[in-house]
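Incident log, structure service

09:12 report received: a user says their structure output differs between two submissions of the same chain.
09:20 pulled the input from the user's history:
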Amino acid sequence: MRSARVTVLMNPEEKAEMEANAARLGISSGEYIRLAVDNFDKPTAAEEAELAALVGEVNQAIPKMKASLEKTSKTVRKLLRENDAFFLERGIR
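09:34 re-ran on a clean worker, output below:
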């Protein structure tokens, strides 16, 4: 038995859109909101599969990304040392 009430404030355009969506589905505004709450953030089986595939791809890419970042960091450190030497030789630093 449903006995608890929730008041939701929205502007007139939002209310009209919600009511139109509910009417298009042949349900009440209350049922539309209950369905929205029940299904909020619940991925479908297809979405779950897609997310799992994406996680797999990211996990495979991480070692390559890490190696690339380490190589870039090494190059930057080398260039900084070279710049320091260049400026020290010229008495700039």
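09:41 both user submissions now match this output. Likely a transient worker issue. Closing.
09:42 reviewer note: Residues 44-93 form one domain. Residues 47 and 53 are 10 Å apart (CA to CA).
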